[in-house]
Design goal:
Helices cover 54% and strands 7% of the residues. With 112 residues, the chain is mainly alpha-helical. The chain has a three-stranded antiparallel β-sheet.
Length: 112
């Protein structure tokens, strides 16, 4: 990939991030089996991300994809580090925001 291609790629990604709706984000971080926000996201052979415990339970009764109903080549699971990192960032951001609010209240409205 040339530098020009990389720059165009990054520009397109950044533009789309700005357009990315909260609904799309919620879908990306929600397990399609449990419909809850992922805590231990893993990728199955179908390329979809699931909550580890949910997909392991699914595999006890089926070797098919919960999303496509296609027979899976294997039931191997790989951690989805990208989704886990995003979720951890959201979680840490909220914790840090709460700490800052508490500090501001303690200092009478000043953050220093």
């Amino acid at each position: 990939m040339t530098e020009e291609d990389q720059a165009e790629y990054e520009k397109t990604v950044m533009e789309n991030i700005k357009k990315f709706s909260s609904e799309n984000l919620l879908n990306a971080i929600t397990c399609c089996i449990t419909k809850t926000i992922l805590r231990d996201p893993v990728v199955a052979a179908d390329g979809f991300t699931y909550e580890r415990e949910a997909i392991l339970n699914w595999f006890k009764g089926s070797n098919r994809s919960p999303m496509t109903n296609q027979v899976l080549e294997n039931t191997e699971l790989k951690p989805n580090y990208a989704v886990k990192s995003i979720l951890q960032s959201f979680y840490d951001s909220k914790k840090n925001e709460k700490k800052l609010d508490e500090k501001v209240q303690k200092n009478g409205g000043h953050s220093n």
